[in-house]
Write a structure and sequence with these properties.
The structure is a homodimer.
Chain A lengths: L10 E5 H18 L2 E2 L9 H9 L5 E3 L2 H7 L5 E7 L4 H13 L1 E6 L2 H11 L3 E5 L14 H11 L2 E6 L11 H21 L6 E4 L15 E2 L9 H6 L9 E11 L2 E4 L3 H4 L11 E3 L2 E5 L2 E3 L2 E5 L11 E6 L2 H5 L4 E6 L2 E7 L8
Parallel strand pairs in A: 1-17, 2-9, 3-4, 4-5, 5-6, 6-7, 7-8, 8-9
Antiparallel strand pairs in A: 1-10, 10-11, 10-16, 11-15, 12-13, 12-16, 14-15, 17-18
Helix pairs in contact in A: 4-5, 5-6, 6-7
C-alpha cells in the first residue's frame, strides 16, 4: 500500500487489488472443496464489498445482528444471523419484516429463545448453535436434538446446525479446532436425525481454520476476516503479510532515539490483543516492528535498528483485529495503484442491535 | 441505574443524577485546591455534558484532536488540544480557523512540529509536552526549555508546560505518579525560566491521580473519565462503585449452569484491558462478577454463586474504559429516576483527525 499524500491521518486504506485477490481466493477454495461460502459481513460492514463477495459466488452473507441484516438486505437476498438472537416484541417485528424481504435464518441455542422467536417473529428458519470448543454460546453437540425439537415444536423451521470454531485463534490451533468443529457438527446432525429432523445445513468456518475444514461434514463456510486479513492472521500464519488489504495510515507525531509514536491509537486500530499477539498491530511489511503500547490517540512503535522515521512521516499500520478497526471508521479509502479511487461508507458501523 | 424496558439492547445509559454529582464534585475539588479545571472532553464527546462542565466552573475544555476541537468550539471558547499536533497544510488551515473562533492552545514536543505549526497554522499558543513517567509522548523535563525556545523562535507563543500522568493507571500508582508529575512540571518550568520564558500554565491531572495532585506546582487539572467513571476506576479505588454514571444495557442471550453470555461485546464495551484489570468490565454493583471473555457481540460473565439470570434478562455492564465505550456509540440514553428522559448525540464520535 502506497499512501496518497492528500489523505488526512489517521484513516483507513484498502488496497483494492489485494482485496479482490482475497475474495477470489476464498471463493475458489470453497468451490474446490464443495462447500457453500457465506462470508461474515461484520468484518467489512460495506455494501460494495458484500456485492463483490456475492459476485464471486458467495451463496449469501452471514451477519451478527438484526441491524446488520437490515443493512445488508439492500444487496443480499439470503442472510444468516449467526447469533442466538433474543426476540422481544420490537426485535421480533424487525425480524418479521426482514423475513418478508429476504431469505432469513437465525441462530438459536435455547428453548426459551426459540419460544420468544416464534412468538414475536413468527415461523422463522433457524440453525441450532453448537459449542465445538470455543466455550462461548451454543449448546454441547449432544443437546442439539433437544433444542431443535423445542424450536420445531415452537413453530420454527429447523434447517440445520452451526458453530464458530473461534478456538482456531491461537498458535497451532487451526487444525485441532477444525477437527473439533467437524466432530461437533456431526454429533449434532445425528442428534437432529434422531429427532426426525434433518441438518441439511452444517455451517462452520473461520478465517484461520478455513483451509483445514472437513468438507465431508461441513456444508457451509462463514469466514469474515479473510477479505482484509490483519496482524492476528499474519502472526498465526493464516495469511502471508502481502495479503493484508487494510491498513491505518498514521503520522509520526513524536520520535525518540529508539521509538516513534503515531496518531492512530485505539480509537482507530481497536484495542484487541490476545495473549499470543506480540503487540497491538505492526508496521506494514515489517511484522517485527510492533505497536508495543496503545492509548486512544497514540501508538508507540519501538524501532530498535537503524534511524527512526521523522516526525511528520506517514506509515501504514496493520491492526490486530480488522473487524474492530473497521467498526470505528465512517469510511474506507480505496486505493488502486497508489491513488485514492473511491471512498466506501462503512454502512453497518455500530449496527449492534 | 434502573433499565427502562423500552430500550433496545445493547445500548449505553447515563444516570443523570450521578453524572451531575460527579461533575459537581470535581469542580468543587478544583476550587478548593486552587487549580483551574479543564476537563478532557474525549471521554464524553457530547455537547450537553461539555456545557454542564463549563456551567459548573470549568475554565475551558481539553480535547485530543483538531476534529474534537472543531466539535466543541460550538459550546466552548477556550480549548486546549493536549496532543503534539503535526500540522500539514490542511490541518494547519483548520487550526488557523479554530484560533479565529476560540482561544486555542496546542501541545508541542519537538522543534520540527513547532516549525510545522508556525508555518501552516500561524502564531498559535502552545504548551510544551513533558514526559513525567508515562513514557508516551513529551520530552524529558530537562529538555522543556530547548523545545520552548524552538517554538518561540518559530513564532509560536509559549504559555507553559503540560504532562499526562498516565502511569497513575495501576494499583497504588496514583500517589507516586502525581509526585512525578509535580516534579517534572517544576523542572520543566525552571527550564523555561532559564530561557527567559514563563510557564504560567503547568497543566496535569488524570482521574485516578487528581486527588493527589500537588497544587503548589500544578495550575490546571485535565481529568476526563471522572464524569462517568468505569470499571478501571472502581478497580483502582479511584471511584466508589455507586459513582458509576454510564453502563451498557445488555440482554442475556445464552445461559449455562455457571455463566451467562450477554449481547454487549467489544463493539459496544470496547476491548481495553490492562494487565491489572480482573476482566473486561463488570456487572453494575457487583464488581466481583466480571466479563471474563469478550468478543464482538458476546460478553461472557461467570456466575459462580446462586442461580444465573435467565435468557432474555437485561443487565447493566460497567465497561473497563469508558472513553473507548462512548466512542463506539452514536448516542447516550439519559436516565433520571428510572425513566429515559433524553438522548444525547455523541457528536465527536470518531473525530480522530
Amino acid at each position: 500500500v502506497r499512501i496518497p499524500s492528500d489523505l488526512v491521518t489517521p484513516c483507513l486504506l484498502v488496497d483494492r487489488d489485494v482485496l479482490e485477490a482475497n475474495i477470489a481466493e476464498m471463493a475458489a477454495f470453497a468451490v474446490a472443496s464443495g462447500m457453500a461460502l457465506r462470508p461474515h459481513a461484520k468484518t467489512h460492514k460495506c455494501l460494495p464489498i458484500a456485492a463483490a463477495q456475492l459476485d464471486a459466488g458467495a451463496a449469501g452473507l452471514t451477519v451478527a445482528t438484526v441491524a446488520e441484516a437490515e443493512v445488508f438486505a439492500e444487496v443480499c437476498s439470503d442472510l444468516f444471523i449467526a447469533y442466538p438472537v433474543w426476540a422481544d416484541a420490537a426485535r421480533g417485528r424487525r425480524l418479521r419484516e426482514l423475513a418478508e424481504r429476504v431469505r432469513l435464518r437465525v441462530g438459536v441455542d435455547s428453548a426459551e429463545a426459540a419460544d420468544a422467536l416464534a412468538r414475536h417473529a413468527g415461523p422463522l428458519e433457524v440453525l441450532v448453535e453448537i459449542d465445538s470448543g470455543h466455550r462461548r454460546t451454543g449448546v454441547v453437540p449432544e443437546r442439539a436434538g433437544e433444542i431443535a425439537l423445542a424450536a420445531a415444536r415452537a413453530g420454527l423451521t429447523v434447517r440445520g446446525v452451526f458453530t464458530f470454531p473461534g478456538h482456531a485463534y491461537g498458535p497451532d490451533a487451526a487444525r485441532p479446532a477444525a477437527a473439533g468443529e467437524a466432530a461437533a457438527l456431526a454429533v449434532a446432525a445425528d442428534g437432529l436425525a434422531a429427532c426426525g429432523l434433518e441438518a441439511g445445513v452444517r455451517s462452520g468456518g473461520s478465517t484461520p481454520s478455513a483451509a483445514c475444514t472437513d468438507a465431508s461434514v461441513v456444508t457451509e463456510l462463514r469466514p469474515g476476516v479473510y477479505v482484509f486479513s490483519d496482524a492476528q492472521q499474519v502472526t498465526l500464519g493464516a495469511c502471508p503479510p502481502e495479503r493484508v488489504a487494510l491498513v491505518a495510515a498514521a503520522t509520526v507525531v513524536s520520535a525518540r532515539r529508539d521509538a516513534v509514536v503515531l496518531d492512530a491509537g485505539s480509537k482507530v486500530l481497536g484495542a484487541d490483543r490476545p495473549g499470543w499477539a506480540p503487540g497491538f498491530g505492526h508496521v506494514l511489511g515489517r511484522p517485527g516492528l510492533v505497536v508495543s503500547a496503545l492509548s486512544e490517540h497514540h501508538a508507540t512503535v519501538p524501532w530498535p535498528d537503524g534511524p527512526v522515521p521523522a516526525v511528520g512521516d506517514v506509515l501504514a499500520l496493520v491492526p490486530n483485529h480488522v473487524c474492530a478497526t473497521v467498526n470505528l471508521a465512517d469510511e474506507l479509502n480505496v486505493i488502486r495503484g497508489g491513488k485514492l479511487t473511491e471512498r466506501w461508507t462503512v454502512s453497518a458501523r455500530g449496527a449492534n442491535t
